[in-house]
Model the fold of this input.
Amino acid sequence: MSNVIGTPLAKIDSWDKVIGAAKYADDMNLPRMLHARILRSTMPHARIKSIDTLDAEELPGVVAVITGRDVPIEYGILPSSQDEQALCVDKVRFVGDAVAAVAALDVETAERALQLIHVEYEPLTPVVTMNEALDETRDAIHSGEHADHHNIHKMVALEFGDLDAGFAEADYILEENYFYQGNTHLALENHSALASFSPDGHLTLWSSTQTPHYVHRALAKTLELPASRIRVVAAAIGGGFGGKTDPFSHEIVACKLTMLTGRPVKITLTRQEVFYCHRGRHPVLMWVKMGVRNDGEPTALHFRTMLDGGAYGSYGVASTYYTGALQTVTYKIPAYKFEGMRVFTNKPPCGPKRGHGTPQPRFALEIHLDKIARHLGLDPAEYRKQFIVDDKTKTVNHLTITTCGLRECIDRVVEASGYGSEKRETRNESQESKIENQKSKIKIGFGLACGSYLSGAGLPIYWNQMPHSGVIVKVDRGGGVAVFCGSTDIGQGSTSLLAYIAAEEFGIDVRDVRVITADTDLTPVDLGSYSSRVTVMTGNACIQAVRPLKQKILDAAAEKLLVPAESLSFRDGEIICEDDDARRLKWTDAVVLTEAKHGTLSGTGSYKPPKRAGPYKGSGVGVSPSYSYAACVAQVSVDIETGQVRVEKIWLAHDGGRALNPLLVEGQVEGSVYMGVGEALMEEMTYRGGLHKAPSLLDYKSLTMNDMPRVETFLVETNDPEGPFGAKEAGQGPLLPVPPAIANAIYDAIGVRIDETPITPDKILKALEEKEKGRTARFGPKNFPNAPYPEPLHVEPPEDAPRLERKKG
Amino acid sequence: MLHLPPFEYFAPCSIADAVNLFAQYGDDAIFVAGGTDLYPNMKRRQFTPKVLIGLNGIDGWRGISNGNGVTIRAGTTLNRLSDHPTIRQNYPALATAANLVSTPQLRAMGTLGGNLCLDTRCNYYNQEFSWRQALGFCMKKDGEICMVAPGSPRCWAVSSTDCAPVVIALDGRVRLVGPRGERVIAAGDLYRDDGIAYLGKTRDELLTEILLPPPDGTKSIYLKLRRRDSFDFPILGVAAALRFASNGEIENARIVLGGVGSRPLECVESARLLMGQKLSRELIDAAADAAWKPARPLDNTDSTHSYRKKMTRVYVARALEALSEK
Done:
């Protein structure tokens, strides 16, 4: 072993990023390249009566103009939601929907040509809010085949165990409405795509995508080309967070334009267009009803969600299920009913953003638990610890818990922050005394919340029996190792991880491993960087690819050293006999011997998650090889006169299994905290009549460096049997507890509940006014719309799920 | 990425040359100093000048010198201004305001003159061309009506300069040089209550100097309301300057609000209440209340207008409290 795993190491691509050598899609230029721009709808909802492109075509410097008729085939990330067109044919569904595209000699000309395209629209009544979406007198945004009912995209209802019995057993039942506002990924790199079509019919696309494999499939479908002649390469990516996980209009348009013109075509989106592409966090309205016994033990949970999906399906069906799937994996819940609904509105489509569909219900649930704990006079931390799920059990909705380090996570953040203890009182004073002026107007509070996330979706996006991740390892006779994998590194370090694993296994230096990723011609399929799947899945595939190779090398070395292969191990660039370390071979010599004996040295590995989906429709969402856990304490200061909140400090403990590189795991935690604080306090996608109010980095508010709290991170390293070297996920889970911890801390500070995000100063002042007037000290949604949720599907819980013990009657 | 429209760029070496060039190109020309406000606006097509007259090469364009008080040349960068010992010592509100503009990078380029002439802002206006096209364009650029107050005959874009309220509160004056000669006007007269014609200077006049009177014991402060601790324009700015007599009575008082109207708003009634009085809790509350009443923020910046109005009272009170402690 070379002690790579578990060691804090720089990412293998960090130098390229630091010195500017990394090539992002927009950095690439090809000879004879054209620049393309897309004309976008100025209407939120309208029929396209006509498009006249003649004037644009005649502008000198314009090479091609296309409209929806050139690329009419519908696509979408989910097989069940093939509701997008690269350029709209009959209808536009939001301001920003793509309508036509121009390829020209330079960007300025393409931009000018857009103004010469004349589109005649027949306006339709826009559907902007969820309530409007439920109003059947409004025009339907999609035809019937794409929606469950009128503007209701998807409806689900599932009931696990006996909900009525659960509520009957409860001593206390709390019902409340919550709202989590939509927000966007805000990756620093704008999406960019460069396409090139060769005269012999080969198409290559370089793109800032998290999912080259799914883009590959969408291109084959929409361009009617054999997939074998399409190559998709993910360029260096400047942040994704889920925003580059769909196949996008501009990718298909760049490809179509290069096919028509025979010249390479590049499209780089403006920031405004990135806001229009969106696929970010769904706004979710929630109604929660929870029953507990006097000691707080949950007896039943009823959770209802309504998602504002925007104009297209995207991942929405999965998002809908995700708003109900993971409520059960933290605390023992013996009876659970989930009702979810996603509606279409004339706004940019929502999709997956870090935590996909789970930060919203987690926000509601963790505030709800805080309220229950306070009502029962229990310490919110101790309260939660009593009912944490056990290792090697199942949840009421058939999810399998392998390892759960949540109890230790809570202990770590409580201890470090002094949450709920005397230590905290002194901390309060020391904090307050630092603030000059208006001391009495600044209130300090502490809040706690937990969360959990999956380590990779248990099922692929399209149904198939093939591996989710493939790795090829090649060992060169010079000792170099090359690892090939379809995975995309969006900054999280997944490429480096493959190098670490190969180096660890072969006992060599990380610098002797080269990793080739995300190229559909060169690398075996990996489904992409989403659902926190990459470490677990590519890691396992890599180990599987490496181990038979190792055996071959050991056999060859054993023959040479005249010792049994079992006595040999890989260490520090050598193969060494553990019984007699005078018997050793240099790694490079061993490789030469092995190649001489076996021929070219390569190995392949595949990974498919264990089959664990429960026996019901919809059980595929939420199932995963393992779950990460996180606990967070937030310390806030609230100015009761201005309503301004400052998050002073975040303590966050994360059980991501074994940390293969603790530095990268801590980075993921800090990044998640950054995003979580921003979502809690300021980030929001807001619209006026379907027009985005603030599609710019200045006006869409996210934290600046000055607003970022101090973060203290704790890694709780369970050793998960499903993970490579015991690893679970780290990229998304740490975000989940942050917003509710902040909301709970604000309550601790000033005694008001803000049951929706973002928690802005004016909402705080309004809640304080309510409190002063003796009304409910709360700001949040007051009711839940009357919506036609279907009859639930009743599902029997598995044997080893939490059981409702009948104590009453 | 957004691209600049094409333009011709001149770099005159003297103020006279700059003014002459402007006279030559007139409506097609715009003066540019740091460019931190103008270039982003040009990328979004709020302005498409054929000619830019760059001022940074003018001899004596930057610098701070003593006279009767202090003279700040218009091209002095905001960084220089906020770091300058005399400014920090004698006009702390100005140093604070300059240091709160946007980000460190932009303060390295942005100038005091530029900040004083900052285009008024509105979230119906500071958007890309295609966005404004979707909206139907507002009267400030390419359209007919004011989107925030459709019944209004005028534009309600918001004065968003941090430095203007301070310069007015400090009783500053500005020197304007134009083809008809030069004049010095009170800083308050540089502004008009109109989102489009927001400057009280003609387009061909160049703002060259900012003149501040001797501090004479005046205490000053600037407080800024915004969502984040960097980057953002003020959605409320409060500049307050008080001069106390030796017995503690206020001899001179000026409170000026930014970010709540198309021009910096001078709280005359608050000042009247303060004059000749000693600061007390009651007086501070009364002055803050008097400042709150005329503030009329509209729904065209970040945050809600009711919140911004509410904060006027709080921020004015806090400014006065802070000055009473100094």
Q: What stands out?
A: The first helix of chain A runs from residue 14 to 19. Residues 429-436 of chain A have pLDDT under 50 and may be disordered. DSSP finds 19 helices and 33 strands in chain A.
